[in-house]
Amino acid sequence: MVREDSFIGIDLGGTQLRVAAIDAAGRILDRRAAPVDRAGGVRAVIGQMEALIAKVRRPDTAVVGIGVPGAFDPGQGLVLDIPALAGWTAIPLATEIEARTGLPTVLENDAKVAALGEWRFGAGRGIADFAYLTISTGIGGAFVVGDRLVRGFRGLAGEVGHTRITDRSAPCSCGHEGCWEAVASGTALARAARMAVDRQPRSRLAALAGEAPATGEDVTRAAREGCPVALTLLREEAAWLAAGLVNVQHAFSPERVVLGGGVSQALDLMLADIREAMRRRLLPGHEVPDIASSKLGDDAGLIGAAVHAKESR
Amino acid sequence: MVREDSFIGIDLGGTQLRVAAIDAAGRILDRRAAPVDRAGGVRAVIGQMEALIAKVRRPDTAVVGIGVPGAFDPGQGLVLDIPALAGWTAIPLATEIEARTGLPTVLENDAKVAALGEWRFGAGRGIADFAYLTISTGIGGAFVVGDRLVRGFRGLAGEVGHTRITDRSAPCSCGHEGCWEAVASGTALARAARMAVDRQPRSRLAALAGEAPATGEDVTRAAREGCPVALTLLREEAAWLAAGLVNVQHAFSPERVVLGGGVSQALDLMLADIREAMRRRLLPGHEVPDIASSKLGDDAGLIGAAVHAKESR
């Protein structure tokens, strides 16, 4: 009988810390989660990781992979900066986890591990040229070209959310304007939704939002109920998504594009518009790629971190 | 003594056909050129290729590589379309050259072979993450990531000239507007130069252009003579180049960027502006890459086509 090792993946988010053990076929064997101890700081969060690893770890666990939502040095296993979490500056995270667990530990960018998860066990399976994009608070990207994950110098490739696409003075999380993320992210959709609610207080969208500021989720729900205000917002969102996807297509030429993140839950409502807008703008020779929703959903990064660990051995 | 094979590269342009034999160290052993027989059509040009190959070929010539300025099918060795040359639709070019010369023949995109030439024997030597961009009539690109040329699905990756960057109604060769090429190519610079000459008929730039419409070359020459009109044009060109280079950096994260094409001859005049504009806009963690001029110049595609042949064996 072949010995089947297991692998631990860690998804470190701004609010949730999630840890899972997966087998070589990408199945989750066990999983645990905890709210990130933000008040406790770096020491406390590393302690949380240690405790959750102890719970999911098995005798055959071989290695730990961590998806880092920020800058890191893969060679040194060093977290350089996590914008969403205070204090994570020059933290030797891999060494710390290795010392506490005895398990080899590797770091990778959070978008890249999510792409890896979808590529190996999700909606990108078997595709040699593949793009993964999360459309949520921001826009993150990671690319597989010729059956290899595109890392680039210092592992920094894939930041297509911060490519300039427009002259609009749309503020972006990076502090600049005109980025794709600034006009096509969930944050941009929610901003447009709040303005639409102000203009159309009797719309179904306004009713669903109620007293709270309208969200991207409200837009999707209202659109499914036929609200014309919400449908217009999704048409505009589809146009901006298509503009950026054309840029992605010309730069990387993926055969398939997989979309994750909250906004991708409205993909079925936007897909025809996206495809038509891309078709009009793509260069001769280029075709509209397959466009699919994430199959692993919120688990893409968790599973992908473990896949990265497995493939780093 | 080790037998050293030689390799033939063909650079098929809209006006010039160039053929060279190189050795394994990238040295040109022999080279020939002829004006493309546009009137004679496809048959005539294939005959020209055959004749020039016969002149540069050596007993040890192993394989022929052709850089295609258009769409092609590498597996079938089929040219699908060359926008700059009429009649090149579904032409089995590789088979034709093989039948006429007895030499195995491979096709690759012209920007990709130029990048390959610079990567192996030019300004990109030894760089694992490397971007090559030609800034001339249009903007072409090709990328090496993790020591591999980025081809993408159907070999179509790298068309960063046709990524949308602005809302300006700047007409692009692709028939759309707002592409990087539409605002930063040599064509865009020449268009701006002609408008500047109309506004400033007493400028040094106007004097250099004389009766003819001003060109990008005129701008560079006038700028070197201190003409303020030309210097302003180059500052604007630098700003658009920087905007696109930031997009390239965020998407591919090259360690070095090599610029070829006519506009790159003014790189020394623009480099400080480009670097400063990139520095202001790059994400934390990203640094301004090395930016260098092409070392092989006009021969990048010719040498690179032979390198592609060599590496395809």
Give your account of this protein's structure.
Two copies of one chain form a homodimer. Helices cover 40% and strands 21% of the residues of chain A. With 313 residues, chain A is an alpha/beta fold. Chain A folds into two domains: 6-116 and 299-312, Nucleotidyltransferase, domain 5 (2-Layer Sandwich); 125-294, 2-Layer Sandwich (Nucleotidyltransferase, domain 5), CATH 3.30.420.40. Chain A has a five-stranded mixed β-sheet. A five-stranded mixed β-sheet of chain A has the order 10-9-8-11-12. Chain A has a two-stranded antiparallel sheet with strand order 5-6. In chain A, a hairpin with a 4-residue loop joins β2 (16-23) and β3 (28-35). The mean pLDDT of chain A is 96. Chains A and B meet through α8 of A and α8 of B. Chains A, B: Keywords: Kinase, Transferase. Chains A, B: It is an enzyme of class 2 (transferase). Chains A, B: It comes from Aureimonas phyllosphaerae. Chains A, B: InterPro entries: ATPase_NBD, ROK, ROK_cs.
- Main interface: chain pair and counts: A-B, 43 and 43 residues
Q: Largest sheet of chain A, if any?
A: 5 strands, mixed
Order of helices and strands of chain A: EEEHEEEHEHEEEHHHHHEHEH
Do you know the CATH architecture of the largest domain in chain A? Answer: 2-Layer Sandwich
SS class of chain A: alpha/beta
Specify Rg of chain A, calculated over alpha carbons: 20 Å
Proportion in β-strands of chain A: 15-25%
CATH superfamily of the largest domain in chain A: ATPase, nucleotide binding domain
As an assembly, this protein is homodimer
Query: Looking across the biggest beta sheet of chain A, what order are the strands in?
Result: 3-2-1-4-7
Number of helices of chain A: 10
Poorly predicted parts of chain A:
none
- Average of the residue pLDDT scores of chain A: 96
Q: How many domains of chain A, as an integer?
A: 2
What is the CATH third-level topology name of the largest domain in chain A?
Answer: Nucleotidyltransferase, domain 5
**How many distinct beta strands of chain A?**
12
Tell the overall outline of chain A.
Answer: globular
The end-to-end span of chain A amounts to 21 Å
